[in-house]
Amino acid sequence: MVLKLDDTKVYKDSEESSKATHQERGGGAITMSRLNFFRIGLLGGFTLLGWRLWDMQKPLTTDPDAERNGSSATREPTRIVSKAPRGIIYDRNGKRLVTNTATYSVTITELYLPDPAKGKTKDEVAAITQQRQDVYDNLARFLGMNYFIAIIPEQVNGVAKKGVFTNPERNAILNELEILTGTSARDWDTKLADLNKTGKDKDLLIVNQDSPIPVEKFDMYKYLRDKYTQGVLFLSDGELKMLQSRFYTPAYQPIEIWRNLSREDAMRLDERRLDFPGVGVQTSYVREYDNPRLYSHILGYTGRFGSQEQLDNANKEAAGDYIDPQDPNDPSSKIPVYEIDDKIGRTGVEAWMEPYLRGRKGAKEVLVNSSGQILSTIKIGKPAQPGNNVTLTIDGTLQAQVADALEKWIGEANKQKPAKVKEGAAVVMDVNTGEVLAMVAFPFYDNNLYNKEKWSPAEIAEFQDEDKAVQVNRATSARYAPGSTFKLVTAAAAINEKKFVRGTTVVCNHYIQIPITSQPEPSQSFRCWGTHGAIDVVGGIENSCDIFFYNAAVPDETNQYYGRSRYYNRGSKEPIYFRGIGINVLNAYMELFNIGKPSGIELPGEYSGNLPTPDKRNGQWSIGDTMTTSIGQGDLEITPLQMCMITATFANGGKLYQPRIVRGVKDPNGKDLTQFSPKLIRDVTKDSVKWNLPDPVDATKRQAKEFVLGPGVIDLVRQGMLAVTSATGTAASQMYGKVGSLKVAGKTGTAEYGDVIGKDKDGNDVRATRAWFTAFAPYDNPQVAVTVLITAGENSIEGSTYAVPAVREILAAKFPNLVNQKA
User: Fold this and answer.
1) What's the rounded Cα separation, in Å, for the pair 638 and 428?
2) Per-residue b/e over 569-603, b at no fewer than 16 CB within 10 Å?
3) Number of Cα atoms under 13 Å in the Cβ half of residue 648
4) Which helix H or strand E contains 8, and what residues bound it?
């Protein structure tokens, strides 16, 4: 926001500060402060270094006209660069999701700033230095900039002699820094001394990077310009950006130091250009994102380079992109892809598709004299080429409906219980292509904030809140135990290993006792959420019976401490022997479904998930670990996107697709450049994976075995998923009879996490939970898979109560005709 300052006051301040250098106070001439001497020294050093670099890299040619005119005797060929607008991003239906909005920005051209080097006397140098400073300070007042405290540690310290620094004002400066920063003088002493020891004390150090001084409060610090200033600087936003850009931008090239100026303020500034030598106004573009609530986590944002290292790395990665083998002498092929004041995609599609979106700069070669004046044009290269346009797989209409459903049921969870839900995610995927039709992460954030020069305290606090972590895409980058939704994988593994078939039952009496010695007692209790009686694999999925899946996972093996793997029903002395597949085999099936590996979606920062194995525990693995893993708890972690991929694989008969969020790329004229086709990771019914299992004779050895799902396995799991939404399934209360003729197959899940927050009526520990529901529809002709996660912060919420109705409303939005038909 531009400060509406009194123009006459700005004029007055400028006039008075200019006069001050020539007036006398207290009968003596005013001497220039050490800060001004430092600025001259800094400027001189930069100028000399810049000239030497230029001199070594640029060929010089004699300029006869200049010689005759008595001006510069040389002229230098150099390039003037023109930037290209960034490409546009669209949804699958052609709706524009981001726009390059024309705006005004403020620039400073160093060549035209008051130059102290032109002063012939000490007073003239001081006067010009003050004039230069006035440009920065008055511009800071006009625009409402912040000020940063910067120090040159080497100058604050002085030379170290016998372990003591020689600057006599060092202690006074350290005390002032304590007042300004809140960090003790002792800590500053230690830090600056350490920088000296490591030889890192020559660089400019920004002291208050995260808490700059607003311009309206800066007057109280001005006294420091005449006090303890050796090595201490107060730099406005504009002065700091000029300092940072000095080595990488020629003096005649404008440097953008402020963005998003209103047309009114741009005109006011332009009218006063004589009061701001070197300052200009130019038209530029900012990325304006459509509806950040819906798209911020998908689109991401662009940002400037935070360091020279970032810039160098970006140019290294993009090396060669601009070289045209047809015309290697084109000036535009010689310029770096990025310069210090450019923007680059930081997160989301903006980052992943950066090579397509950034466009290509143009350039022309001109002659300039030693004063930086352009004499003539030598060569005109290719004009700047706008970036290519990217089309996403996202359906904008469905995306809005998914966001509404997720936010509604997060609100319901918070309304019904003091759950303090702070996060959630929803993903909708085309089961036959892997295209992501919708992806929503909660909490939302506003990526348009990155277009602002200054953030409010509330905005800063929002982004710095570690609990909210608003920029994290919960659908792809957060890690969660999947709870009972993972039972789909355990069931498929147990069926495929022929441990269970349709009709093979386990009796669930709510509790089982696992002995921890060779005797029945003492034992450890494990419980199911219900009491299901005799139950087979379809019923196990339908009712999400924990005890069934304990039996499916724990193998029949003998341990030296507690004997053969067995359990006892409560009140019974008859052992029941486990007959499951074991953790190593279960790991193989996790590998088959790609758990523990990134999906490859076109978004940076994806979490690959965690596949828990005994090897990661150095062999320290128990029956209890296998049991908790089998029901999606313990160390097992996946993302909502990965759960949606697994669901889609069961829906389409076994094809595990790489999820896609980018559909294609077109050039600025609408010509197709790239169309992304479905990419199959594997068909789990045809493409096996190898997994090393312990040798049955010698457990220290391993033998590789191939795993692939056989005939009928997926169909049996699908039957269980369909039963989940029936009148007796775990999703019955929110799904059965409420989706018309649409047949939905799914799996509920409630995953505990964190510390104990209380006890239930039976005295069992209660923890906060994550509510899951994953589903596909229509059952007979699957088209989409939907996964919803809602995470409670301080209470226990059920997937069947809050995640299921969110999925129901998403499916109703996707298939309104079927949902409105009678079953």
Assistant:
1) 16
2) beeeeeeeebbbbbbbbbbbbbbbbbbbeebebbb
3) 32
4) helix 7-20
d(CA 13, CA 136): 12
Strand positions, DSSP E, 162-270: 164-165, 205-206, 213-214, 232-236, 255-261
Least confident span in 231-235, 452-456, 751-755, 781-785: 452-456
Q: How confident is the model at residue 766 (pLDDT cuts 50, 70, 90)?
A: confident
Q: Rounded to whole angstroms, how far apart are CA atoms 75 and 374? A: 9
**Arithmetic mean of pLDDT, 797-812:** 93
Encode 504-524: b = buried (16+ Cβ within 10 Å), e = exposed. eebebeebbbbbeeeeeeebe
CA distances from 80 to 58, 114, 740 (A): 14, 23, 65
The residue-averaged pLDDT of 16-31 equals 33
Question: CA 222 → CA 122, 135, 216, 482, distances in Å?
Answer: 23, 16, 12, 58
Residue 71 confidence (pLDDT): 43
The DSSP 8-state label assigned to residue 4 in this structure reads: -
- Which whole-number Å values give the CA distances from 625 to 127, 239, 554, in the listed order? 77, 59, 10
Q: Find out whether 128 and 230 touch, Cβ atoms under 8 Å.
A: no
Q: How far apart are CA 736 and CA 567, in angstroms?
A: 35
Which of 55-59, 287-291, 410-414, 510-514 comes out lowest in average pLDDT?
A: 55-59
* Average pLDDT of the segment spanning 124-135: 91
Rounded to the nearest angstrom, the gap between the alpha carbon of residue 52 and the centroid of all alpha carbons in its chain is 40
> Which residues touch 41 (CB under 8 Å, ≥6 apart)?
none
Average pLDDT, the chain: 84
Q: Taking a C-beta distance cutoff of 8 angstroms, is the pair 548, 505 a contact? A: no
Phi, psi angle pair for 531, to nearest 5°: -125, 110
**Tell me, what's the pLDDT at 65?**
42
- As a residue count, the chain comes to 823
Cβ atoms of 347 and 301 closer than 8 Å: yes
Per-residue DSSP letter, 215: G
Q: What is the mean pLDDT of residues 268-280?
A: 87
Residue 39's pLDDT is what? 46
The pLDDT value recorded for residue 25 is 30
Residue 680, strand partner residues = 657
Closest to 432 (Cα-Cα) out of 602, 687, 678: 678
Q: How far apart are CA 497 and CA 399, in angstroms?
A: 40
Question: Comparing C-alpha atoms, which of 6, 282, 2 is closest to residue 140?
Answer: 2
User: CA 473 to CA 299: how far, in whole Å?
Assistant: 11
The answer to whether residues 73 and 218 touch, using CB atoms and an 8 Å cutoff, is no
Rounded to 5°, the CA angle 341-342-348 comes to: 130
Buried-state track 121-160, b at ≥16 Cβ within 10 A, e below 16: eeeebbbbbbbbbbbbbbbbbbbbbbbbbbbbbbbbbbee
Q: Is the peptide bond before 696 cis (omega within 30 degrees of 0)?
A: no
Does residue 12 have a pLDDT over 80?
Answer: no
DSSP letter for each residue of 394-422: --HHHHHHHHHHHHHHHHHHHHHS-----
**What is the biggest distance separating any 2 CA atoms in the chain, rounded to whole angstroms?**
113
Cα–Cα nearest to 541, from 334, 724, 398: 724
Give kind and range of the element (H or E) at residue 358.
none
Pairing of strands 784-791, 765-777: antiparallel
Determine the number of helices (DSSP H) and then strands (DSSP E) in the chain.
Answer: 25, 38
Q: Would you say the C-alpha torsion 453, 458, 459, 460 has a positive or negative sign?
A: positive
The DSSP annotation for 739-769 comes to STT---EEEEEEEEEEEEEEE-TTS-EEEEE
Give the helix, strand, coil percentages of the chain, each rounded to 5.
35, 25, 40
